[in-house]
């Protein structure tokens, strides 16, 4: 039985990853691992039910991935991150023809996070 998926996203700079994922988006670092002090970082970040692994290891994944993250209260998320004044991203909310509202943010490594709030039609 399958339970859930944990995506692995490629990162190249630990400081930029922390600035984006923790300072800007509000994820928390659950754990981090290096085989030795001067080896690449592998860490897990999470927020609510979303878990993402971030890896500096070249063989784990390729930059340029896209994640669709279902969310509620997209407007509140947008307002919260807008207050951060992150100089590399100022995303807006888009109304889509497929009855969702979406906010797309690209991390410093070319990975896209699409936060999606779906409409319920009656």
From TrEMBL:
SUPFAM superfamilies: Glyoxalase/Bleomycin resistance protein/Dihydroxybiphenyl dioxygenase. It comes from the Bacteria. The keyword Protease does not apply. The keyword Nucleotide-binding does not apply. InterPro entries: Bleomycin-R (IPR000335), Glyas_Bleomycin-R_OHBP_Dase (IPR029068), VOC_core (IPR037523). PROSITE patterns: VOC (PS51819). This is Bleomycin resistance protein. Residues 1-118 form the VOC domain. Keywords: Antibiotic resistance. It comes from Paenibacillus silvae. Belongs to the bleomycin resistance protein family.
């Amino acid at each position: 039985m399958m339970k859930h998926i944990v995506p692995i996203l490629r990162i190249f700079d630990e400081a930029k990853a922390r600035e984006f994922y923790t300072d800007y988006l509000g994820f928390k670092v659950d754990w981090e691992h290096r085989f030795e002090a001067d080896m690449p970082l592998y860490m897990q970040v999470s927020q609510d039910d979303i878990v993402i692994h971030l890896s500096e290891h070249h063989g784990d994944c390729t930059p340029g991935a896209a994640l669709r993250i279902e969310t509620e209260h997209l407007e509140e998320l947008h307002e919260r991150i807008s207050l951060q004044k992150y100089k590399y991203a100022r995303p807006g909310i888009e109304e889509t023809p497929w009855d969702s509202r979406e906010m797309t943010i690209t991390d410093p490594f070319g990975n896209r996070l699409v936060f999606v709030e779906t409409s319920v039609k009656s």
